């Protein structure tokens, strides 16, 4: 039986020190005498094969999270793995071994979205550790499709650990949290990725955590990842993070010392070029050659699991044709996914619009025809992107409805052209609003406003948001269009990767939709939602606060006052909330420590999907309650079914300061419904979750 570690170790034994070290850079050169081809470790697949040309481009990760659906996350990842293999096979034929052309995907990002100002939050699965773990595991398994020792692609869980901004300070920042938050918020998703999903790689974060740089942390990489969790894969540094050790964190004095620290702690491959100093580190006695051997063995073992370097080939993977990329079947599945990612936050009866009762629809806003707002970051190139304007035009005009369009304002500047006066598109927006029977207003952000340090090059800085307000003149546009509409239906669609403060829209618009970054098919999905072709079923994977004043200091990594689990105020739209066009009821709740069952009935007039959510309220705990179970259900009108929800094995326990699970004795309350049991959710939906007691 093929043993990747044994075969890799044998190959490493034939290498010189310089050859070994060369394989520890993300740009690993060929070693011709050993038949080792060049390989670039850096590839991306956050929500589609990224930065390597055309690919199916799914909703951004935060939008995938809004599905609350493990099955669809797994299916999305399987499509991405298929396209990744198809592209890799074609690139190999063309002898293209460049960056982004490999099979080691540095995805998913399973950091906790603890603060809505963080620019990279839209890369994550939201603010909840349990939801992040479930979706992360599904995504990793879908990417890897592990069969014995064979992998379709290799996934990478990032950024380990305690990492969520500020982006502008990530190269020198020290993230400090208490032991309780470390183990009960920041680490559970990574533990699940390692133990349950058997993720092949883990990427360290840029910052320090509790004083140690994450890519050279004894606590994180040695004590927790390798020893406590038994991780057998490889660790990759974040890009150029090793030089931060001496340049910014100042925990070492030279490049050689930084490299020695990282490798000795278990960092195996360097995104960047600092590991060239590993030869000097060995010669100076700061590293042993055995430590180099261990790292390179892990790396070559990964390549062998992928069927490379003379390992047994899996024809099911190596023969995937290029024609699988961006196929019509994948596009149809992408549309299905986009529909399930959309969240209806308010509806006073305005939606769905009746296409037969209106003659003119006004489409207004800076995100109405903004292709970048479909994609998010870490994106590939969609071949047929459909913006919201295009989607509405395609659907409405077939029904004889005239579509009027006005951009209204710039995404964040006060004018569209430099020679114009401020608000140079506002009059056009008012004119469209006055002449339309219904108005759809597309506001929000794109990945140019929120994203990674260095990526979001705009006046708002590093990529983090300064506050939760709509940027530029968008709030003014919202108010002017609403007033010009003079009582006619106004639908606000927010396209953003994070929560925004939209109290005016909540109070004055007839409907509010959160679309996140909905992918290449986003415009079609939104048009079909607006005209009632399906019932929305997305749920918020993060809290929408009323304003920035509700938030603790951005740099404070303790969880007090953050996310639905610790926030004591009233949210504008709570975590787990999302409306639909149908209605559902729950009854016959039965529960034990492992699962609960409940009868769900669709009492509405159309087929629809819902998410059964289970929250546990435990005695004398810091959290208000914790999500501990989810289950999707889709029913036709008047149909009912019994749904079983498996509970988190740690639902009635917490981690102690050493990371050991400790059962909480006493009476726990399970809340089972379609939302949290908080009063705001109850008020918004008119339904209170069922509850029962579990004694432990």
How would you explain this protein's 3D organization?
The chain is an alpha/beta fold and 696 residues long. Helices cover 29% and strands 17% of the residues. It is built from 22 helices and 23 strands. The protein has a six-stranded mixed sheet, sandwiched between helices. The protein has a four-stranded antiparallel sheet with strand order 18-17-22-23, with no helix packed on it. A hairpin with a 3-residue loop joins strand 15 and strand 16. Helix 1 crosses helix 12, helix 4 (70-93) packs parallel to helix 5 and helix 16 crosses helix 20. The longest helix is centred in the first third of the chain and has 24 residues, at 70-93. The protein starts with a helix and ends with a strand. The model has no long low-confidence stretch (mean pLDDT 97).
Residue share in β-strands:
15-25%
Nearest-integer average pLDDT? 97
Indicate the percent of residues in helices: 25-40%
How many helix segments? 22
Basic shape = globular
What's the count of strands? 23
Q: Report the structural category.
A: alpha/beta
Q: What is the CA-based Rg, rounded?
A: 25 Å
Largest sheet strand order: 9-14-13-12-10-11
Rounded to the nearest angstrom, the distance between the terminal CA atoms is 46 Å
Main β-sheet: number of strands, strand sense, barrel status? Answer: 6 strands, mixed
Low-confidence regions: none
